[in-house]
Task: structure prediction
Amino acid sequence: MSSRMVKVYPRFERLWHWTQMTLIFVLLFTGLGLNGVHGLLPFGPAVMLHTIAALVLLCVWIFATFWLFTTGTWRQFIPKMRGMTKVARFYAWGIFRGEKHPYHKLLWRKHNPLQAITYFGLKILVFPAIWITGILYLTYNLWEEVPNATLWLTVIANLHVLAAWVIASFVVVHVYLLTVGHGFRQHVAPMVTGYDCIDLTHEQEAYLETNEPWRLQS
Amino acid sequence: MRRVLTALALIATAAPALAQQSTAPEIPGSDSTADHSKFEILQKEFTSGPEVTEACLSCHTEADDQVMHSIHFNWEFENPRTGELLGKRNVINAFCGNVVGNEPRCTSCHAGYGWDDMHQPPPQQSTAVDCLVCHDRSGQYTKLATGAGHPPMEAKGKTITGADAWAVDLSKAAMSVGLPGRENCGQCHFYGGGGDNVKHGDLSSALVMPDVHTDVHMSPDGANMVCTDCHVTEKHQWAGSRYDVHATDPEGTGRPGERRRVATCESCHGTEPHPVDIKGMKLNDHTDVVACQTCHIPTMAKGGVATKTWWDWSTAGKRDAEGNAYSEEEFVQSDGKHLHTYLSIKGDFRWEEEAQPIYEWFDGQVSYASAAQGGKIDPTQPVGINEIAGDAHDGKSRIWPFKKMEGRQAYDSVNDTLVYSHVWGPDTDTALWTNLDWGKAIAAGMKAAGKEYSGEYGFIDTYMYWPTTHMVAPASEALDCQSCHAEDGRLANIAGAFMPGTGGSAMAGLLGKILFALALLGVLGHALLRLFSRKGEP
Result:
């Protein structure tokens, strides 16, 4: 076992992450405006911006989903219970006692168990909730003939707004957790450079050195 | 030779004069194959309107029959949806009340000659049709305000637009005829209710030569359209009725060459009028429930002519210290003109310019069932002279703009019916406008209408809906989204619709905010604990 700086976030994943971040901020900003939280944008332009950003994000997600499945990266996001209590205990207790983060990143497990289950929940619940309700909201005129369409639209709009607030809350916690452990800059860096400190087995290290030396930093 | 010279001199001097006198604006696209000034039968002195009509009918043999079957002539309309017998002949409105008993003042705007008794149908001889009021293009034909439809033959009295009358040159009018221009229709329809724009709010003299801001269709700087471009006719029957409104038109435009029979926006603009981009598609999504007029007529009474919005008849009859009728002119229009806010003969008025319409679901059905035809009313409530039908879920209603005319009108306080009143009659001792006595005016009006009257009267709040459809603004001046998509937006009273931005997702919003606040608090608490435990990471 040795700790090495390994490229675990390829260019596409980083591009995906930051595009998604930008679009989510645009969507939150415009969406909250549309719901009366602020009045910084007139309704019409806000709707247009919101719609365009949403359509672009959907495209990004389609690409990302394709990428996750073709590269096998999807396995990174499947939640595993192993080590979960340790991580949870760390955030709830150990962190205040100056303990070290209990999780060591592995080559095919770059997220800690809490991270993995959170991202999994986002991908499987919250993101689908927001885009399914969003598309239904946008295409109301295609299904307005169904009985009680106005009521359904009200339900859909409410779910959409609720999902948005869940995402906003995620953003808060997500950003906060970057300050934990090695500090904000060190946590953000992998998503910029692509390299993160990973515990490699000798076999993995040997494989990478032989076949993918560009993935190893010094 | 001398005769030729004289003739030339005459032409030379007359030509510019003729050009000056022709005040009627050119009708776009009028390229008739007939120059009526070349018809011998029209090149003579006429001494009355019917004489001109007789000349017209010598060629246009079926015109009289066609006109006599139109609402313009009969003032009667059987609503095919409700079966109600409507039309000026029958209904009470929220303005001067009723026609019966007030001929020939009210019938001065009749598209015919000599209808001076509402108990009789309009005169049936073929020459009773007034061709000139619609087809005169000399710009100097008019009708006398009190002449039962006849034109003034001398400079005495007033015209139907309230101007001092002049002697009409019938021969000149007859030789000028063409398709109706805006001012032809306008001399009656712009002055309904007793003055410029009093009645409709969206029909005023401003539409004779409007700027684009006032009316993008009728402005010479816009499409320069005339009324009949939309109100298409067949056999002198016009499309477009306020009694039976085409509130939605899912058919849209006709095929090329197809005769359009409706006066809807969609009949020209189609059912998906906005461009196919991301904004246009969203706007097109609105057309099934929002009438075009709602966004494209942000205000009515534009172009410097205000509309009357309140008429309180109950205060009529007051006299000044000398015992004379008097008037107040407190409303100043944007053109500087002072408008009556009180008249002893009519009561109190309120006016509005650039007025914002009110909005209601509307399926096109306007009902006058009870009140406007002398039926029972509920005196504890404001009385609807007409009522509009429609709701969010009937699949045919759209949100429409209206002028809501309000005021107070006389009613029979024993029988609980609106009353007919005799207002005009310079020679009678019962007419309100001559004697300022409500009791006599109502008794005479009810007698003229043949209605039962208890002899007791009072006044009651009334309202009347007038669909707004003219004075369409240029697209750039259409309502912004947030005019309605806001918590206190223009459509705040509209029920049964989900409108984003109006607080419809407030519950999720509140839940979400709580969740978000908890997340913030949690993070903050965690951070504080880390700070104070001081054993955190470096």
